[in-house]
Amino acid sequence: MSHFVPTVSVKIGATLVPLRGVSFCPFPTQEGFYFAVCGSRYVCVCLAKSNGETVIVQSYSDEDEKEAFYCCAWTLIKDTTEVLLLAAGEKGIVRIINVSQGTVERSLVGHGQMINCIAVHPRDGSLVASASDDESARLWNIRTGAMVAIFAGHQGHRGGVLYVDFDMLGEKMVTCGKDKGVKIWELKHCEHEIETSHRCADMQSPDGYSTYDESHKRKRLFRTRFVQFPLFSTFLLHDNFVDCAMFVGQLIVSKSTSNRILLWQPQADDAALLPWNNQYTVLADFPLPHSEEWFIRFGMNLNRTLLAAGNTQGTIRIWNIDELRSTPMEQLSIPTKQAVAQCAFSPDSHIFIAACLDGKFYRWDLQQNTD
């Protein structure tokens, strides 16, 4: 038997900075696990030590006072040793922060409205997806800043896209949003653009899309791909905003503002692409009372066996997905009873962080009972 016990709470800044996002760095160090929290125009890098101590090691403040970061994620580009931290939010710009240097390395500009989520490709750290209120998800190559593909249009979302996630192989993406829709997209439709974007980076393209030929004339190697037809689409699964969706193998976990999280199996094939609403099978229903705000996101551990989500009352529920039980395996509480915006597990699943609107993040550590 094991359970999480509270270790520490840390306040960010001298004034109230409501925290909206938290993300663990997937690359462990000898010192412990690094993670980031974001809120308002601030992003803080913290170190969770194995002895229970947590320290803030770096803080970034955006130059635009009107910026408000809603999400953050970590990546490491192949053949490099520099860990990059991505943050985005109200201004619709993805900031790429070089953590070792403490500087903004690049900004990804193209979304027309705020960005609600960032996801990193599981096999290629230079590919990053973003979900925006402009009704699109976009795929970027952060080596050059090139926009590889836009997932929107004819059968795309009809409202703000609130979340995006890759499957384990990096062959598909799932998106969800304010239109109550959940969609699965195949990346095979933009394989050429992905490959060419890497070639542009290798050739040190001046703009990420083109190069110069022997006569010094600029030659465009690729254009951003528009993907308008998802592999799977439904608006019937949830009856309100769908603010979070993640892959669990070939299954999907999704949460709506209707106070529930569902584990389900999509059923889509070539013959089922024409209907606007594809078929699905719900496997488990996890109640989450008082979670009607769209910015409350769940978190999962690295192997997608643990699911955790908080609510507006400061209560956090943790489920073991494999058990398919609606009753949580554990329930945690925030002392201030403030809303929990997002939760995250360390790569080894032994540390749990909750980012809250009271300007603090809270840490719990897994304890093994020997009784």
Automatic annotation (TrEMBL):
WD repeats lie at residues 108-150, 154-188. It comes from the Eukaryota. The keyword Transcription applies. Transmembrane segments: none annotated. Keywords: Repeat, Transcription, Transcription regulation, WD repeat. Gene3D superfamilies: YVTN repeat-like/Quinoprotein amine dehydrogenase (2.130.10.10). InterPro entries: PcG_WD-repeat, WD40/YVTN_repeat-like_dom_sf, WD40_PAC1, WD40_repeat_CS, WD40_repeat_dom_sf, WD40_rpt. SUPFAM superfamilies: WD40 repeat-like. Belongs to the WD repeat ESC family. This is Uncharacterized protein.
